[in-house]
Design a protein that fits this description.
Helix 1 (about 30-40) packs across helix 13, helix 2 (about 50-60) runs antiparallel to helix 3 (about 70-80) and helix 10 packs across helix 12. The chain is an alpha/beta fold. It is about 40% helix and about 15% strand. Strands 1, 2, 5, 6, 7, 8, 9, 10 and 11 form a nine-stranded mixed β-sheet that branches. Strands 3-4 form a two-stranded antiparallel ribbon. The chain is globular, with a radius of gyration of 22 Å. Helix 13 (about 325-345) links the parallel strand 10 and strand 11. It contains 13 helices and eleven strands.
Amino acid sequence: MTRQPPARPASYDKMVALVLQGGGALGAYQAGVYEALSASEYLPDWIAGISIGAINAAIIAGNAPERRVERLRAFWTEVTTPTFPAWPGMGPLGAAVAQASAIMFGRNGFFTPRLPLELWFGAGATSFYHTGALRSTLERLVDFDRINSGETRFSVGAVEIETGNFVYFDNARMKIAPEHVMASGAMPPSFPAIEIGGETFWDGGLVSNTPLRYVVESIPRRSRLVFQVDLFSAQGRAPENLGEVAEREKDIRYSSRTRAVTDTIRREHDVRHNINELWERLPPELRALPSAKWLYDFGCVTTMDIAHLIYRPGEPQGPAKDFDFSRQAMEARWRAGRADAQVTLAASPWLAPIDPAQGARTFDVRRPAGTPERDSRTM
């Protein structure tokens, strides 16, 4: 039984952000994480996502707190409605069937395959699937007026195709509509590009699979506790066949981007924090130097706590695991996310005293025993 988390002391007054990365069907893990957070003292005031993380983020931000888990459940139940009846106990074969089913027939309320004639003889087909069903689902499950009210800050990342620039659609700066969420999840060549204001966009995961940097570096900065939910694990066993090779390659490819961003942010924020500590000790004649003034502008007094919640399935799930929309897989991932978040909340490592030299700390409470820490400050 998971022990109850300690009460959040009034002295821990950091704002809370929830950062959700992409990963297709693996996104059910994020829903489980949010279910645990929803019953805690750490409700996010800012939710940012990319790809499936953008869809989950929209459902959370676009509903009243008491309805968010219910609406997440409605989405994940709909998209995991089986095309064919599942056979109990099929194990890896069942996962392969579920993956093949999604690839061949699409998913209810999400995407549908183009007809073969469209792909073979159609002019200008640029994707394998249509995503009109997703628009209908978003319009039904998400209150965009609530998102645009600014009650919860909401940001999703996408890539502008012609320039290759990474952009964020942020309700602090613009009115959010279903197409902004769809653009964040428009992964080519599976899904079509989304046009917004005369520009076309693809999935933000092409550039970065995590919106962490955007949240931490947004001006004006605020001290924050960030729950970063990762769907691909950096650690994993050596593969024993080609299927496991493909799965492990995908895990490393996506997790390495997230890890690089996290490590860079931690180092940069430590530098920013120490610049401010040093500034207070400088005499006036040194503060007047142009180089000192430049450094002061780079400095920051805020502190950041980043809590990692990483989906780490115990067994290989196949190279197309992000297309495994089976009900069984969804439920298992949801339970794993909820359990990992409950254990992390129970530990609440961010309540430990902070080293004055640190600008940012990272925590991974569920890191498997025996795996090396990347940094002595990482728990």
